[in-house]
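Course assignment 3, question 2. Fill in each field.
Student: A.L.
Task: Predict the tertiary structure for the chain below.
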Amino acid sequence: APVDLLWNGGIGTYVKARDERHADVGDKTNDSVRVDAEELRCRVVGEGGNLGFTQRARVAYALGGGRIFMDAIDNSAGVDCSDHEVNIKILLNAIVVEGDMTDKQRNALLAEMTDEVGELVLRDNYEQARAITTSAAQAASMLEVHERYIPALEQSGALNRELEALPSDEVLAERKAAGGGLTAPEFAILLSYTKNTLAEELLASDLPEDPNLAGLLTDYFPTPLRERFGEQLLRHPLRREIIVSRAANDLVNHAGTTFAFRLQDETGAGVADIVRAYTAACELFGLRALWAEVEALDGKVASATQVAMLLKARILLERSTRWLLRNRRRPLDIAETVARFAEGTSACGDKMASLLDPAGLAAAQAHAEELTSAGVPQALSERVAFVETLVPTLDVAEIAASSGLDVTSVAEVYFALGARLDLHWLRDRIVALPRDTRWEAMARAALRDDVYAEQAALTAEV
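Answer field:
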């Protein structure tokens, strides 16, 4: 039927790919009513039940233009809710045993927190779905990375490519030639494996003991527990597991599936170091507030506009995280790093319009006008339009801190040198270089970083 939504909420597998046999599905009861994904004419599929589609059916439907994730993504709220329930009851049962609460008080508190737990669960689901949509927007441009990442997961023993119906190297090559990339259901698989492998590596590190990340634990729980039992929260038996799960979720949901993989490759840093640098970068540039403003536009502007804004902000997030990994001692002290750089980066951001050369300013203003015409509030449009120009402010703040000079004076010299030497032109030429292979991408990134480093060194000399 030509409908907007096909919603599956039952038991059984009702859709397969055309090249699959009914026997491959393993659900004989529903053989007589099962259809091929290629026959569906709905625009969107929502999977409230498990296994309604085979994974190959999801991919076939997505390749035909349909919108679908996968069952584990669409109905993860149930698992997430159980996860919160168990961890809350572990905490409250210990408090009851200690005599600080009666069973009756415990049950009343559980009922009181119902709505907030629902909000926390939906927040997780929202961010996870948004992460897949954002990845799908870069499917073609990031395919070279995915061609490396999938085999890397295989070689580590974390992933069985064939079992998860991920495309072979030959299929990926065909999609690249056609200008395509991975589909949303395939990104859903990669997102799941990425979060699991990151969590395992983080659990084996000292990250859960980092006091700067204690908020990951407390923010997992509803407000009444944070306010009344903060001390007991820190003694939760699954404290480490909750922290690493939330750290992996946060990084992957906002920075992307291959973020940690690429930064490990480029800097040699471990995942714990990457999480610390990522967290510091988010704080330094107020990215969480920016994400919230973009999210507030749901239903008010086109989703493609929101995704484009998020990807623009991700440029600053990725480059600043890389800068911190390369220029600060590991393990990074998040609080000390924020204290050292926050004032300088903020001051530069406030004056950026007066610091940029005419060409850079004109480009940022034109982008802001595009966003405003798409329905984005002017203040947010300008913030997003100028966000990439903040990349060098860490260099500026470092020079100011090490030399004892005013950060604004340093910034004026930095950007004046860039304009005098036409370094923006040079960076544009570097960005235009091809990155079809890993080595081209790494060479391009190294050249770009070298230009920033030379500009900073020249500024320090002046």
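Instructor remarks: Residues 303-327 form the longest helix (25 residues). The chain is about 65% helix and 5% strand.
Grade: pending
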